[in-house]
Amino acid sequence: MQFHKFFFDGTDITDLPGSIIHPRQALLLAGADSLLARIASAPPGHIILSQLPSAEAEAVTHLIATGVLRSESGRLYFDCPIILDADRQTLADMTPRHAQRLADILAQHSPQLNAIVASKQDGFPAQRHLYHMLCGSVLDGSVFDHLEEGGLVTTSKPLATGTNCLTILYEDTPALNQFSDLLLCSFNRLRTESCTFVSFGDSNGLRRDFYRWFTCRSTSQTALQDTPLDALLPASLPELLEEAGRQWMRCMNGQALSPEWQTIFQHFGYMEQQRPCVPVYTAAECRTFQQQLDALVAPLLLPELRAVLAEIATCAQLTAIRHGVAPADLANEVYHILFGQINEQLVQCGLFAQPSHTPGEGRYLRCVEMNA
């Protein structure tokens, strides 16, 4: 049994220490995958901590510390949302019909939604702006906040190690991937002092964007090697990130960039022919669009979303619930599934832009948000 791993992350990924304090690091340890597979294949609490082989001692210690597992009376349970193939039918019964109904409601309000972003005249169509502002900033942002206010979802998971990250595990099966890797519900934001590099899409590959590069480097993964940014190492990752922000500001201010940084921005898809090739939003535009979209969309979606997510605590057949995972933690991922299915429907009907698939990277679109 193999797993896809996702992270609802509130940690500065550019400044992780060498010591293991983050689930991303713990899940890379030798023995971690095999231990997770054994626990998932057994009844909850069946695996006894004291009987683990010594080769798994380091992994289990860090998996407990980083909120992936927990020990109760010497027995091991998952402490984060886990979705197995055995859970697939329950999710299929729970989510698509609600997503279709909510997508239809939003589609009926297309004129109002398009009117909100119509003031942005930058050569990109309204569908592209709704993709970033509604898919990302509202459905994966402010609507999440509304649901958290009611105690239905978790958006923050402080850990004993000092980090803040909710881990989500999916069994890797083709059928279950329809709920994880293949949905448009993955929002990557990498903030600098001056701007935030953003991408939104599915998880069906390794995106060529700044967030993924910095994440790989901070956890010593070897993916996305030999990029123009690698030539600037061994500069510290926080310093390199801020330099990226400063160089983007130079571009926005009409100042010339060095050939080095022109190559970097072009390689990662933010610039073509020395000009930005993605939407760039001022802080005022982000604020205005998000507030107006939320004011329209939240009342349309929240009643049904609240009803669906409230059911999770009673779904005793779900693996995560049987392991005692907090229902609000699991609801975080169920809501991701719901709004990912909503996004797919709205892409198909033309309300949102269609992200093209890049082999090895998946479907996603980039933008940049200025912080002032």
Fold and architecture overview:
This protein is globular. The chain has 13 helices and 12 strands. With about 375 residues, the chain is an alpha+beta fold. It is about 45% helix and about 15% strand. The protein has helices spanning about 25, 30-40, 55-65, 90-95, 95-110, 110-115, 125-150, 210-220, 235-250, 260-265, 285-310, 320, 325-350, and strands at about 5-10, 70, 75-80, 80-85, 165-170, 185-190, 195-200, 270, 275, 280, 355-360, 360-370.
Essential attributes:
5-stranded mixed β-sheet, 3-stranded mixed β-sheet, 13 helices, alpha+beta, globular, about 375 residues, about 45% helix
How much helical structure, as a percent, in the residues? 40-55%
Question: Low-confidence runs (pLDDT<50, min 5 residues)?
Answer: none
* Main β-sheet description: 5 strands, mixed
Question: Can you tell me the overall shape?
Answer: globular
SSE string: EHHHEEEHHHHEEEHHHEEEHHHEE
Separation of termini?
47 Å
Number of helices: 13
* Rg: 21 Å
By secondary-structure content and strand pairing, the structural class works out as alpha+beta
Query: Total strand count, please?
Result: 12
- Report mean pLDDT, rounded to a whole number: 93
Percentage of residues in strands: 5-15%
